Amino acid sequence: MIAMRRFLASGWLSAYAFLYIMFLYLPVVFLPIFSVNTAATPKFPLSGFTLKWYEDLPRTPALLDATWNSLVVGVSASILSTVLGILAARSITRYRYPGRRAINGLIMAPLVLPEIIVAISLLLVILQLGLSLSLFTIVLGHVLVCIPYSITVLTAGFEGFDRSLEEASADLGESAFGTFRRVTLPMVAPAIISSLLVCFTISLDEFIIAFFLTGTDATLPIYIWGQLRFASKLPGVLALGTLLLVASFLLLTIAEILRRRAARRTQNEGGLHA
């Protein structure tokens, strides 16, 4: 009887997981399907197959400008977030000090706060400081959002690191900074690269903060939002959305592979030196 209940429970859980995944990702599947449709209206049955919408993307100057802006913002935000994340992750995993948990909770707050509230708050602060809205203000907003993800990835890399390696380096006469640069950073390099990729992907896809903090230079999500007002531009938006979807999936997959490699590496090193 107990075995039957467990079987039914596992069956219901599997069915729930399947329905949840279908509900979450089924609309995304239609994006690449309609992006190759000859008709401008996304509906079934498809009128035909074409790559025209993809071929027109490089011929759109506004799209190229938005792509460049997104690359600048994404690279800047990912580098700044990862550098700050390295410092915070090392502090969290290596030292014990009053208020450590509270500080960590405040850093992670953007993960649970409504993003529109964060965006409005940042806009008010930036205007009070007298800064003009530009790509720089978008980078500041994206850094705030990306730091929690960076710390999460990097903390996993630092936690499994064997401190005896740093102690051995110090015993050999190396300075604290030299030990960090020559011993610690190479060991957590996969986690650092993973953090860069995750932060870049988040910045590339982020819309709400960019919408409030953008000036005259639009990023890709802002460009897509603007094109949705015109029905004739919808096929191009679908094609661009498909490319962004594929790029995000590839970057996050690579980041997860690197994160798992970093975790295995630190575990192996820890077992070797134990």
Account of the 3D structure:
The chain is an all-alpha fold and 274 residues long. The chain has one domain: MetI-like fold. The protein has helices at 2-35, 52-56, 61-94, 100-107, 115-128, 135-159, 163-171, 176-187, 189-205, 208-213, 220-227, 234-273. Helix 3 crosses helix 9, helix 6 (135-159) packs parallel to helix 12 and helix 7 (163-171) packs antiparallel against helix 8. The protein is globular. The protein starts with a helix and ends with a helix.
Number of strands: 0
How far apart the termini lie comes to: 46 Å
* CATH domain class: Mainly Alpha
Q: What do we call the CATH topology?
A: MetI-like fold
Q: Enumerate the spans where pLDDT stays under 50 for 5 or more consecutive residues.
A: 270-274
Integer tally of domains: 1
Instruction: Specify the biggest β-sheet.
Output: none
Shape: globular
Strand content: under 5%
* Rg (CA only): 23 Å
Name the CATH superfamily assignment.
MetI-like
Q: Give me the secondary-structure category.
A: mainly alpha
Oligomerization category of the chains in this entry: single chain
Helical region count?
A: 12
Question: What is the residue-mean pLDDT, rounded to a whole number?
Answer: 80
CATH arch. level architecture: Orthogonal Bundle
Element-by-element helix/strand order:
HHHHHHHHHHHH
Summarize the amount of helix as a percent range.
over 70%
Question: What distinguishing features does this structure have?
Answer:
single chain; 274 residues; mainly alpha; globular; disordered C terminus; transport
